[in-house]
Amino acid sequence: MAASAKVVYCLKNRHKLQIRACPQERGVMKYLRHFLNVSVLVIITTFIVSLLLEFLPLLPQQASVEAISIDTMFSMHFRVISFLFALIVVFMLYSLVVFRNRGGETDPGDHFEGNTGLEIFWTIVPLIIVIYFAFIGAQSLADVTRTEPDALEVDVIAFQWSWSFEYPAYGVTSTTLYLPKDRQTVLNLTSRDVIHSFWVPEFRVKQDALPGKDFVRQLRITPIKTGDYMVRCAELCGGAHAYMNSPVVVVEPEEFEIWLISQQNAGETGDSVTRGKALAETMGCLSCHSTDGTTLVGPTWKNMYGHEVTLIDGTRVMVDELYLRRAILQPNDEIVEGFQPIMPSYEGLLTEEQIADLIAYMKSLE
Ligand SMILES: [Cu+2]
Q: Which site among 76, 83, 102, 348 is 20 to 30 Å from 222 CA-CA?
């Protein structure tokens, strides 16, 4: 293009090109230089921010198969986010510095009427990216919910404010979730009271536990790293929600078998007090009651038996076996002074023998 033709083109397309200094050719070049500067800065910033996000320890360690597919999506999002961040921040800072008012500039800025080409571009490109993300999101969902035939079944019971884990195929109940490495475990989640949510950050996946037998929720985990983890509740569920943690231990398959056998034996042996102690742990009594004199959500069990207790209506009651029985089955009939009526009833949840074991354990705590 000859210089004069360029000037005419420039004038005609003034609004499209958004050129302040038109028709001088110098203006076009100046404008292009800014665009080049900004593009280079955007690329550099994107690179630095995504490196930072990649190498900062933002996520806990990857301890399950499910974590891998979720983290892959995370890092793709991090890269897109880095670019969007750079696009906004670089343009803003560049304009602030380079186009600042150097004094004496009182003219209003140029008026622009939009740019159809640019608008189509910035609609289509994000649309394609979002559709692509929806696609890999669906793929990842299929990955983390894939069912394997030889999965280990564990029934997880959530309650205020602890967890209980049952292995129905082995008749074992535990307060620690033991899992074999490299084998899929399917967790059947339920709640005894309000909504809780099962979450081990190292496994990434999370699922609510809902009250009611018809609302069993499943979560599948295939651990790939042995070690100690912690399940926490991810749904605000009352006073001690923040302390609703239980240990999760991932072991080699052989070690898992040994643990199962030791648990099965433990259930058969032991006297009433030992069984009662184990029961108080698995039923979650000890998340509200201490055995060493400290007051938790409920009264301590230390020195409880054989002493008088004051109820909220002022009456004094002797703590004997009958009182303990009532306290377990109809906890809200007699409320201990200074406490809230929040203890759940265990009517129908415990056998006569289990109630006797619990009472034997409470009697032993002096
Ligand atoms: Cu909870």
A: 76
From ligand 1's centre to the CA of 9, what distance in Å? 68
Residue 237 tokens read as 């569920």
> Are residues 204 and 176 part of one domain?
yes
The pairing of beta strand 185-191 with beta strand 152-159: parallel
**pTM beyond 0.70:** no
Q: Within a domain: residue 112?
A: no
pLDDT in tens, 207-242: 999 998 888 999 999 999 999 999 999 999 988 888
Looking at residue 297, the DSSP 8-state letter turns out to be S
Residue 79 counted as domain residue? yes
Q: What is the rounded distance in angstroms from the CA atom of residue 231 to the CA atom of residue 199?
A: 6
The SS3 assignment for 108 reads coil
Type of residue at 345: S
Q: Which of 192, 151, 191 is nearest to 168 (CA)?
A: 151
Q: Which residues pair with 249 in a beta bridge?
A: 178, 228
User: 71 lies in which domain range?
Assistant: 17-96+117-144
Answer whether 275's CB lies under 8 Å from 300's CB: no
Tokens linked to 202: 């190292």
Q: Which residues crowd ion ligand 1, with CB under 5 Å?
A: 196, 233, 237, 244
SS3 172: strand
